[in-house]
C-alpha cells in the first residue's frame, strides 16, 4: 500500500518511570509494525514519559491528544496505542472508556496494537477490553500496596521516605550499612537503589532557633503567635528566607521529628486520590533515631523522657500536637 493510500494516524506512548529506559522506543517500534500491516501511517506522536497511568491531570500528552480530537483539529483518522494499560490504569474503568469514547465519537477510533483482540465493538472485543481495563487498574492497586509495605518497613528502621526535611534538619545520604556519604541539598535525590536517607541536625543557627522556640513556649509561656513575632523581631529567617508565622511555629512544636521520633504515614494520597490525614493508630513511629552519635532530637534530652510542651501547646491551640504520640 502506497503512502497516499495509508490512513494518517497518531500514536500515543506512555511509560511509568524513568527506569523504563527503552519503553517508549519499544512501543513505537511495535506500533510502527502494526501500522505498516494495517494500512496506517503515523503522522503525529503524543507521549507521556515517566507518568503514572492512574490519573489524567499530569499526562500532558494524553490531554493534548484529547483536546485536539474533541476540537476537531486532529489531522489523522486513528489513534494507535500499544495496549490497554498504556492508555491508562484508571481505577474507575469507566474513565478509561470515557476518554476512548470521546475519540470514537469524533471519528478517530483507538486501536490497541499489541492486544489479541480487535477493538471493533463486537461482544468478545468489549468483554476482553473491559477485562483488560480492570486488570490494568488492579495492577496499580496491588503495586501500591507492595510499595507502601516496603516504605513502612524502611520507616520503622528510621529511614526517611521522601519529602522535605523541615526547618533545622537536613537529609543525610547513607549506605546500606548506615555509613554517612553526603548531605543532600534541596532537590537532590539518591542515585543508588540500596542507599538510604536519614534526618540529621542542620546548621547551628537553625538548631538554636528550634531550641529557642521550645524554650519560649515552656519556661517563658509565650503563645505560638508571640513566638513567631519574636523570631521575626530577631530577624531569624524561616525556610526560603521567609518570615515566621503561626503555622511555621506550630509545625516545629508538634512534629515528632524534633523529638528524635521518625514519623511516616501521617497523610495518605493513594493512586492520585486527594490527600487525607490518617489517624495516629496508622502512623509508623520510630523513636530514638540517631546517626553518627548525633541525635535528631533537637529539643535535647532523651527521646523517652516525658515532655510538658504538648500540654503547653494544648492550652494555646485548638488541637493536640502529633508529637504526643511519641511520648
Structure description:
This protein is of the alpha/beta class and 327 residues long. The chain has two domains: 138 residues, Rossmann fold, CATH 3.40.50; 166 residues, Alpha-Beta Complex (Hect, E3 ligase catalytic domain fold). It contains nine helices and 13 strands. The strands form five sheets. It has a four-stranded parallel sheet with strand order 2-1-3-4. Strands 6-5-7 form a three-stranded antiparallel sheet. Strands 8-11 form a two-stranded antiparallel sheet. 28% of the residues are buried.
Short description:
The chain is α/β, with parallel strands linked by helices. The chain has helices spanning 23-38, 60-71, 84-87, 93-105, 123-156, 204-217, 224-233, 246-254, 309-316; strands at residues 7-14, 40-48, 78-81, 110-112, 169-174, 180-184, 196-201, 261-264, 267-268, 276-277, 284-287, 290-291, 294-295.
**Radius of gyration, Cα only, in angstroms?**
27 Å
Quaternary structure type: single chain
What order do the strands of the largest sheet run in, or round the barrel if closed?
2-1-3-4
The CATH topology of the largest domain is given as: Hect, E3 ligase catalytic domain fold
Structural class category: alpha/beta
First and last CA, distance: 75 Å
User: What is the helix fraction of residues, given as a range?
Assistant: 25-40%
Q: What is the name of the CATH architecture of the largest domain?
A: Alpha-Beta Complex
Could you give the count of β-strands? 13
For the record, the CATH class of the largest domain is Alpha Beta
Order of helices and strands: EHEHEHHEHEEEHHHEEEEEEH
Separate helix tally = 9
Strand content: 15-25%
Amino acid at each position: 500500500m502506497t503512502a497516499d493510500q495509508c490512513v494518517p494516524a497518531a500514536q500515543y506512548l506512555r511509560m511509568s518511570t524513568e527506569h523504563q529506559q527503552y519503553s517508549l522506543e519499544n512501543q513505537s517500534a511495535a506500533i510502527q509494525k502494526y501500522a505498516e500491516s494495517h494500512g496506517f501511517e503515523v503522522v503525529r506522536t503524543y507521549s507521556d514519559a515517566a507518568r503514572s497511568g492512574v490519573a489524567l491531570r499530569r499526562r500532558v500528552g494524553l490531554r493534548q491528544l484529547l483536546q485536539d480530537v474533541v476540537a476537531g483539529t486532529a489531522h489523522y483518522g486513528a489513534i494507535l496505542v500499544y495496549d490497554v494499560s498504556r492508555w491508562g490504569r484508571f481505577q474507575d474503568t469507566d474513565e478509561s472508556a470515557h476518554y476512548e469514547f470521546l475519540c470514537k465519537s469524533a471519528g478517530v477510533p483507538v486501536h490497541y496494537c499489541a492486544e489479541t483482540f480487535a477493538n471493533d465493538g463486537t461482544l468478545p472485543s468489549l468483554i476482553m477490553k473491559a477485562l483488560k481495563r480492570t486488570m490494568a487498574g488492579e495492577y496499580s492497586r496491588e503495586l501500591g500496596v507492595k510499595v507502601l509495605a516496603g516504605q513502612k518497613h524502611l520507616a520503622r528502621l528510621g529511614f526517611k521516605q521522601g519529602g522535605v526535611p523541615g526547618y533545622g534538619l537536613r537529609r543525610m545520604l547513607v549506605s546500606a550499612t548506615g555509613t554517612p556519604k553526603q548531605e543532600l541539598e534541596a532537590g537532590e535525590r539518591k542515585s543508588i537503589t540500596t542507599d538510604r536517607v536519614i534526618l540529621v541536625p542542620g546548621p547551628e543557627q537553625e538548631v538554636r532557633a528550634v531550641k529557642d522556640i521550645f524554650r519560649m513556649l515552656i519556661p517563658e509561656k509565650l503563645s505560638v503567635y508571640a513566638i513567631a513575632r519574636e523570631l521575626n523581631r530577631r530577624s531569624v529567617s524561616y525556610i526560603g528566607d521567609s518570615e515566621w508565622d503561626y503555622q511555621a511555629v506550630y509545625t516545629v512544636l508538634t512534629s515528632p521529628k524534633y523529638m528524635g521520633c521518625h514519623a511516616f504515614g501521617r497523610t495518605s494520597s493513594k493512586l492520585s486520590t486527594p490527600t487525607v490525614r490518617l489517624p495516629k493508630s496508622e502512623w509508623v513511629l520510630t523513636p530514638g533515631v540517631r546517626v553518627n552519635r548525633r541525635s535528631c532530637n533537637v529539643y535535647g534530652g532523651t527521646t523517652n523522657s516525658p515532655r510538658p510542651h504538648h500540654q503547653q501547646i494544648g492550652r494555646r491551640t485548638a488541637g493536640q500536637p502529633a508529637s504526643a504520640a511519641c511520648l
